[in-house]
Design goal:
The chain is of the alpha+beta class. It is built from 20 helices and ten strands. The chain has a four-stranded mixed beta sheet with strand order 2-1-4-5, with no helix packed on it. Strands 6-7-3-8 form a four-stranded antiparallel beta sheet, with helices on both faces. Strands 9-10 form a two-stranded antiparallel ribbon. The longest helix is centred in the C-terminal third of the chain and has 23 residues. It is globular.
């Protein structure tokens, strides 16, 4: 608070500063349009995005004056728990739609300023930067001989950001103390968990437009330190990998960087999850790495493959009550999204095996849909199976999964017929994506 309040009481504060830029009609209108297009649920005041325009038409001037006068108090965020891969919960904080507009307006002014300061090794939540660029950068480093990695895990990063340190870093660039104060108010707004208010003395709540920018501003300090020490690394939000030429060098790098992270930035390194390993043993952004003819290459990490199969199992469950069209739509959306993200990996032969398993899942669902003996008999005959064989299988008591692999279903519910029915397959879409690129 010391930094923010000292700046607020600065008598030489310009009459038109950064706060006026943030609250300008052009910037606020752009922020409103962005929040509206992102949709999302309401915060603690239960106002939805659809009601935002009507509220702003009536209260816009009053809202802006309260921010300019320093009397505005943001609402606490609404806590939402999202399941993570490891079975734990990710804590998201949903601000009210009004606060989302103000946060978005702040982000729009600050982002271009900080983009000039950010490291070229930072790829998360930045315009014209992506996870794929971070992965390709790692490939280049591996090709150059950096084959050992420090797989860095910052323990509960978003929940442990030190407010005073962040304010100090912000105040180096943001000269308008009123903006620092407003951001600090958002950090201190608190959270509502099951209708109970809790204070937020540390952390940057994930879920609002400000949190990605604030996380990058904080971790840019680490980026600059690593660059000063001459390290090769890539960072996407709080997911970071530092690449070294030997295991000993990687271990030394980890030992030397931990004191800076914990004593200078006041963040915590998760020592159980932070590892030094050969590149093929780590997971970064869902991928792992390997070498082929001294060239860095990408493959899908086994955990990402297992997660994908679990999702396909859920969509093709025999008991989820979904109709054919809903299932086809869900599969198409998931497969196209998944392949577009993992298209950098060498996975042609892997996808052939996945598709074989996936088609068996589809045949199992179809066999269950046919339910009755007479339905199975009729459909098998219509699909070209001899009557006596159709009768034999229609009366079979074998389980759905076992029948799904039978020669009869492979001959009747063929791959081509599944495609004609509107199902999309991993291999086919992967070839299409690769041919376009």
């Amino acid at each position: 608070m010391r930094i923010a309040e000292n700046n607020i009481t600065n008598a030489e504060q310009p009459s038109y500063g950064m706060l006026e830029q943030i609250l300008s009609p052009t910037n606020m209108n752009r922020a409103y349009k962005k929040v509206k297009s992102n949709k999302g649920s309401g915060g603690v005041d239960k106002m939805e995005v659809e009601s935002l325009k009507d509220y702003l038409v009536v209260h816009k001037d009053e809202l802006i004056q309260s921010i300019l006068g320093g009397t505005y108090r943001p609402n606490p965020v609404r806590r939402v728990e999202i399941p993570k891969e490891n079975g734990k919960m990710r804590m998201l904080g949903v601000p009210t739609v009004i606060d989302r507009v103000i946060q978005q307006a702040i982000t729009q002014i600050l982002s271009p300023i900080y983009e000039k300061q950010f490291s070229t090794n930072s790829y998360g939540f930045r315009p014209k930067r992506s996870a794929h660029q971070a992965l390709n950068k790692c490939k280049d480093y591996i090709t150059d001989g950096y084959k050992y990695a420090v797989d860095m895990d910052l323990e509960k990063f978003f929940d442990t950001v030190n407010h005073s340190k962040l304010m100090e870093v912000l105040s180096r660039t943001v000269q308008d103390g009123r903006v620092i104060s407003l951001i600090h108010k958002y950090l201190n707004a608190g959270v509502v968990v099951r209708n109970k208010f809790e204070e937020t003395e540390v952390g940057v709540p994930q879920g609002g437009p400000l949190s990605p920018l604030m996380s990058n501003i904080m971790l840019n300090e680490l980026d600059k330190e690593l660059e000063k020490r001459g390290h090769r690394f890539a960072r996407y939000a709080d997911d970071m990998v530092i690449l070294c030429k030997s295991k000993r060098s990687a271990e030394r790098t980890l030992t030397n960087i931990i004191p800076y992270i914990e004593k200078k930035l006041f963040l915590k390194v998760n020592r159980e999850k932070t590892v030094v390993a050969y590149i093929s043993k780590i997971k970064f952004l869902g991928y792992s790495f390997y070498e082929k003819k001294d060239e860095g290459r990408l493959r899908i990490h086994p955990k990402s493959l297992a997660k994908m199969k679990e999702r396909i199992k859920t969509i093709t469950s025999r008991s989820n009550g979904w109709g054919d069209e809903r299932r086809k739509t869900a599969l198409k959306q998931y497969i196209t999204g998944w392949v577009n993200y993992f298209k950098l990996a060498d996975m042609k032969s892997l996808l052939l095996n996945v598709d074989e398993w996936y088609r068996r899942r589809l045949r199992m669902v179809i066999w269950k849909q046919w339910k009755r003996i007479r339905t199975r008999l009729r459909n098998l005959i219509n699909l070209g199976i001899e009557k006596y064989k159709a009768w034999e299988y229609a009366n079979s008591r074998k389980g759905y999964w076992r029948i799904a692999k039978s020669p009869i279903l492979n001959r009747s519910v063929t791959n081509d017929r599944l495609i004609q029915a509107g199902y999309i397959f991993f291999t086919d879409y992967f070839r299409k994506v690769k041919s376009v690129n």
